[in-house]
Amino acid sequence: MMQINVMKDYQDLSRKAADCVAQQIKRRANSVIGFATGGTPVGMYAELIRMHQQEGLDFQQVTSFNLDEYVGLSTDHPQSYYHFMWERLFSQINILPENIHVPPGIFDDAEAVCRQYEAQIEQAGGIDLQILGIGQNGHIGFNEPRDTFTVSTHITELAEKTRKANARFFSSEAEVPHRAITMGIGSIMKARSILLLASGRSKAEAVKQIFSGRVDPHIPASVLQLHPHVMLILDEEAASLI
Ligand code: GLP
């Protein structure tokens, strides 16, 4: 079932999303949460930090898995997703470092690190709640539009549109890595529940495609139509075409 919440603006969207995460953690203190990067969840992370500091929301038993990372960026690179997560969330809550998982951007054996990431998710008991953003081209994690879905964690070539969209975080487009390591469509679909956030007019077309009634690997987010428990939290602009 797909539940849709249209919020009046980004702040409301962020609050609603943080509430969903908080509810999950209150229901089960040792929840496994899948976190996402990008601009969209930043407000939700700020709200989670506030809930931790002011309301005692407790992350001590939480385990986290991030969706993806740029290949070639080290953990201390300012644009790495590892660095982003520490800045925006992990350093300001009481999650234990040993319970945090972000796919590595630097490695020798790609196949081994991808296999290991899947095994770690499995050992943790699977993901209870997966947070997702959405690319303008309908990508989730870094699962780009392709002729087929890739099931498990893998290395992928970034679409030009994605590199352009993400160039705003780098000093130039040339600096945006060409490859990423990402959970696969199967890794995402195995999560027990999914929360997809989208904000702004630039996401409206991609959001509309989620409801196409067809599952199409050229619009990766369309696969969410097959998931039994998805919640979309949108602002009015992102929801404007549905
Ligand atoms: C990035 C991330 C995705 C994210 C998407 C949207 O490339 N890999 O996980 O959902 O693009 O990003 P933003 O929220 O900044 O629009």
Put the structure in a nutshell.
Helices cover 30% and strands 18% of the residues. With 242 residues, the chain is of the alpha/beta class.
Write the layout of secondary structure elements.
Elements: E1 2-7, H1 10-27, E2 32-35, H2 42-55, E3 63-66, E4 68-70, H3 81-88, E5 100-101, H4 110-123, E6 129-132, E7 154-157, H5 160-166, E8 179-182, H6 185-189, E9 193-198, H7 204-209, E10 230-235
Parallel strand pairs: 1-10, 2-3, 2-6, 3-5, 6-9, 9-10
Antiparallel strand pairs: 4-8, 7-8
Helix pairs in contact: 1-2
The structure holds 2-amino-2-deoxy-6-O-phosphono-alpha-D-glucopyranose.
> What's the CATH C level?
Alpha Beta
Contiguous uncertain segments of 5+ residues? none
Proportion in β-strands: 15-25%
Structural class computed from helices and strand pairing:
alpha/beta
Overall 3D geometry? globular
CATH topology: Rossmann fold
Topology as a string of helices (H) and strands (E): EHEHEEHEHEEHEHEHE
Which strand order spans the largest sheet, edge to edge or round the barrel?
1-10-9-6-2-3-5
Question: End-to-end distance, in Å?
Answer: 17 Å
- Residues in helices, as a percent range: 25-40%
Mean pLDDT across all amino acids: 97
Query: How is the biggest beta sheet arranged?
Result: 7 strands, parallel
Number of strands: 10
Number of domains: 1
How large, in whole angstroms, is the Cα Rg? 17 Å
Number of helices: 7
**Secondary-structure arrangement, i.e. CATH architecture:** 3-Layer(aba) Sandwich
Distinct ligands: 2-amino-2-deoxy-6-O-phosphono-alpha-D-glucopyranose
